Amino acid sequence: MDTKTAITSGALNATLERVAEGDRTALQALYRQTSAKLFGVCLRILRERAEAQDVLQEVYVTVWRRACGYDPARGSAIAWLVTIARNKAIDRIRATPSRGETLPIEFAGEVCDPSADPYHAMETAEQGQRLSKCLDGLAAQHSDAIRAAFLDGETYETLAHRASVPLGTMKSWIRRSLIKLKACLER
């Protein structure tokens, strides 16, 4: 262990001793020194920022109440604090009802399948194949522009810049290409 880590660990031990004596400024100092790390622990477990912030507050309340129970002989101050944060975060997960709560089997008849039925799935696949075939029938630059504009959400300005053509030309390409696509799909 290097000197800087030992000093930091010793400083944390001293700060915790002052917290155990009821020193509020020591609790503030402890918070400044350790809150980023403990928040990271809570956030990693809970994955929601607001939940992690709530649990972090609980951690420092617990530290305020139990600082006298910290024993440096059993481990470092930061390990003790991380253990409290970890346990509080896990307790929060256990106390929160699961979002994917299961229902009794009696409700199974009332559950609907949101996916398309096989007929509609086949129809959608066929339409996709027809659209792809019609797009392939366009000039490569026009087909690429249509795909980029309507599937990737690119702006006409971006497409014109990328193709090194004036904006009006790009708009004309896309308009004429859409007319051709409509005719192809209606056959």
Describe the fold and architecture.
There is one protein chain. The chain is mainly α and 187 residues long. The protein folds into two domains: 3-95, RNA polymerase sigma factor, region 2, helix turn helix motif (Rna Polymerase Sigma Factor, Chain: A, Orthogonal Bundle); 118-186, Orthogonal Bundle (Arc Repressor Mutant, subunit A). It has eight helices and no strands. α1 crosses α2. The longest helix is centred in the N-terminal third of the chain and has 23 residues, at 24-46.
CATH architecture of the largest domain: Orthogonal Bundle
Q: How many runs of DSSP E, i.e. beta strands?
A: 0
Describe the global form: elongated
Cα radius of gyration in angstroms: 31 Å
CATH superfamily of the largest domain: RNA polymerase sigma factor, region 2, helix turn helix motif
List keywords for this structure.
187 residues; Rna Polymerase Sigma Factor, Chain: A; Arc Repressor Mutant, subunit A; 2 domains; 8 helices
Set down the secondary structure blueprint.
Layout: H1 3-20, H2 24-46, H3 49-66, H4 77-95, H5 118-136, H6 140-150, H7 156-163, H8 167-186
Helix pairs in contact: 1-2, 2-3, 2-4, 3-4, 5-8, 6-8, 7-8
